[in-house]
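Example record

One chain of 328 residues, shown exactly as stored in the release files.
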Amino acid sequence: MAANESSSNAVVVRELERRFGNFVAVNRVSFSVAQGEIFGFLGPNGAGKSTTIRMMCGILAPTGGGGTVAGYDIRTQPEQIKANIGYMSQRFSLYEDLTVEENIDFYSGIYRIPREKKQARKEWVIEMAGLERHRHSHAGTLSGGWKQRLALGCAILHEPPILFLDEPTSGVDPNSRRRFWDLIYELSGQGVTVFVTTHYMDEAEHCDRLALIYRGELIAIGTPQSLKTDGIAEEILEVICERPQDAIEVIEKTEPAEGIRSVALFGQGLHVVVPDAGAAAPVLQRLLEQSGYPVSRIEPIAPSMEDVFVSLIEWHDRSHPPLAEVRR
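Predicted structure tokens for this chain:
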């Protein structure tokens, strides 16, 4: 690994691997994260996101490969890494019988914040998270969104240059998720590098760059726009028809020669992946209407991040044997 690469990036990993017995949870993953970047790690549950982030945070030792975080070696300097990052998981430990202030005081001690800075850092966290009215409330009485903000504040008390967020918005309502992302933008604007794992496709749009992980393997990396432009070779038809959920079965039984690759329910309609939207649209409309599903609209659209991810997964499955067959 080149020295200048490590110094110019907040995170660098090369061929990172983690095995649990014969099971390969993370399979030779490589990427880098620039300083001040919001980097998204996107994938379905069980894809290897949390295992990767735990290795980078010095919590779990890699089986193979390596890298640096904040300039420290993942393999040999895990304690230095822990001291120079903030880490928040979906199960971040708040003490529910303590108040908001008492939780912050507790983590100030954990992070060994100097006595003369503790009060100022506490007030900064409370203001940043909008917790002024809740400072004397017990953490256990807070809603999920307020707990989330408090957990974020506790994770960045010591002003780390890199923040790792592992599924931080899992289980909270959409409004709380949006407010949480406002805080992430604020931190990024202050120069903090943010590495966030998520399975929410809409959150992926908020990242500067994305890495898509599937079955432990990195299958694509780039900006959201570049992935939507270059990550899918086919075109997308949006189909609005009667009983779309039932219509899926008709489309899935269509011969591949008709030019239909795949179909998925999307909102109130269907997204159909085809190699040529102009040629496939009349074929698809005729098929549906002859099968008793009148079509009110059918038109090509720009792919969403979900379309791209589904297409990449299907391409990966077609071009690679199941991972279970290659794990040793």
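Notes: Residues 108 and 115 are 9 Å apart (CA to CA).
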